[in-house]
Design a protein that fits this description.
alpha/beta; Rossmann fold; about 290 residues; globular; 10 helices; 2 domains
Length: about 290
């Protein structure tokens, strides 16, 4: 079954537009409804004067991003919740499907998690520590852990015209890795290349996991997804550094990973590997917990 209900999380920073466009493309490919929630920061300025924002009249041949970017800069409406809401309504017209609009203007991560629980996929942005556009109470890793839904994290740097065509799946046999792989199936159904990658400290780890990985290849093949195995020794590098390095080598456009951390000292529900990906990602990362 494909995705039918997508939630995109927006803020008043300039990269929200790209995130909205990506979520709209996924919704169109999946035949899904698109809802949006705005996280207002201290610099979000409510409208003092009612202004009519021009509709973008989205069509499949329209470069909506260029039009929106021009409005964003020229009209000074980038801090206006009304502008963002109308952008979302324009996307609804383009998709010919409905959706909801939410605006959270106070520190309430529980409210955001509740909205996320009622979606098939949540699209969120990586926090840019230098932008100051995201409320200080907002921690994407908390949403990943508590919402129980797959979360697609989008880097704050870069544009992502394609998604799910060349995919790297981080695999270690854990429940979280299984959950993430299966949650990704609607997006990777038409992938041209899928790599099931396991990273170990020594070759014995590969031997113990090889049968399980072959089983996952058969599982993917029964969903018409052809994949291959990549076994990599980590050496002196961190696991997330190895994953990101292979992302470049394979020209990957999406990483799939479980949100977890196995450690004798559990510093948090989401730990080193997952946090490293969230901080240093260069392509969108789909995570499940």
């Amino acid at each position: 079954m494909g995705l039918r209900d997508i939630l995109v999380v927006l803020d008043d920073g300039p990269v929200s537009e790209g995130r909205l466009q990506l979520a709209t493309r996924i919704a169109r490919q999946q035949g899904a409804s698109l809802s949006a929630v705005l996280l207002r920061s201290d610099r979000t300025i409510p409208s003092r004067v009612a202004r009519k924002v021009p509709h973008l009249a989205l069509t499949p041949g329209t470069s909506a991003g260029l039009v929106a970017a021009a409005l964003w800069e020229e009209t000074g409406l980038r801090d206006e919740p009304e502008f963002l809401e109308q952008r979302v309504r324009d996307c609804h017209r383009y998709l010919e499907r409905g959706g909801e609009w939410y605006c959270l203007d106070r520190p309430d991560p529980e409210a955001l998690a509740k909205l996320a629980k009622a979606a098939d996929l949540v699209v969120m942005g990586q926090v840019n520590p230098g932008a100051g556009a995201v409320p200080p109470w907002f921690r994407p890793e908390d949403i990943v852990v508590h919402c129980g839904r797959p979360v697609l994290m989008v880097p704050y740097i870069g544009t992502f015209a394609e998604l799910g065509r060349r995919v790297l799946i981080a695999w270690d046999g854990s429940r979280e890795a299984v959950r993430a792989l299966n949650d990704s199936l609607p997006i990777i159904a038409s992938a041209r290349m899928v790599t099931l990658m396991t990273i170990r400290s020594d070759f014995r780890g590969f031997q113990s996991e090889r049968v399980a990985m072959q089983n996952m290849l058969r599982h993917l093949a029964r969903h018409d997804v052809l994949a291959r195995i990549d076994e990599t020794l980590r050496g002196e590098s961190t696991i997330h550094d190895v994953l990101l390095s292979r992302t470049v080598d394979l020209a990957v456009d999406m990483i799939v990973a479980g949100a977890y951390h196995r450690s004798p000292i559990r510093e948090a529900l989401i730990g080193g590997v997952s946090r490293g990906l969230l901080r240093h990602m260069t392509v969108p990362v789909l995570m499940s917990h």
